[in-house]
Amino acid sequence: DDEKTRAESDIATARQKLDDDLRQYEKTITLPQDRELFERMGTAVQGFGREWEQLRALSRAAKREEALAEYRQSPIFQELDKAIQDEIVFNKTNGDRNAQLTTGASNAARTWIWILLAISAITGSGLAWFVVRGVNGVLGRAVTELAEGAEEISSAAGQVSTSSQSLAQGTSEQ
Predict the structure, then answer these.
(1) Contact of 40 with 76, CB cutoff 8 Å
(2) Apex 111 CA angle, 108 and 117, nearest 5
(3) Which residues, 6 or more positions from 25, have their beta carbon under 8 angstroms from its beta carbon?
């Protein structure tokens, strides 16, 4: 008798967990077909709950074999089993489709990343080439101007030296 009480308690706990899980699952439903399958499963669960009371009464009356046979042959149990299997197949099919879509989106994103990386590298290289070319041009002009300036200073220094020698010679002649 303790075993039956414990089994009934376990079944009640499992039923409560099933109800909680169904409420949680219902919040995730977004597709009409999924909603239809879920409602069919919910109706079957309710019907099975009503039939369970009859099976439990047989079990309590020590008609265990009769209760088990009725359970296995129950159209409501078969309907519940079919509804659950249909929901499982739908979710697997939908999951596989979503996985394919996600894989496709991931591959497309990877392709675009490589394209943008290549464009960025080419654009960056071109920009660097123009910047280096511009800096080289400015530096080249600066070097040319410095060289011309140094030449003029050298020429001026030569003239100053010649003038100094002339002056020194003129002074020594006096």
Answers:
(1) no
(2) 140
(3) 38
- Integer Cα distance of 82 and 88 in angstroms: 10
Structure token digits, residue 27 = 């919040």
Question: Whole-angstrom Cα distance, residue 15 to residue 20?
Answer: 9
Q: Tokens representing 129?
A: 């080439």
3, 73, 13, 44: CA torsion to nearest 10: -170
| 59-101 pLDDT tens trace | 777 787 887 787 778 888 888 889 999 999 999 999 999 999 9
Three-class SS state of 15: helix
Enter the DSSP assignment of 31.
S
Cβ-based neighbours of 91, under 8 Å, separated by 6 or more: 34
- DSSP for residue 63: -
Q: Which of 121, 43, 125 is nearest to 35 (CA)?
A: 43
Q: Alpha-carbon torsion 161, 167, 172, 173, what sign?
A: positive
Q: pTM score > 0.70 for this model?
A: no
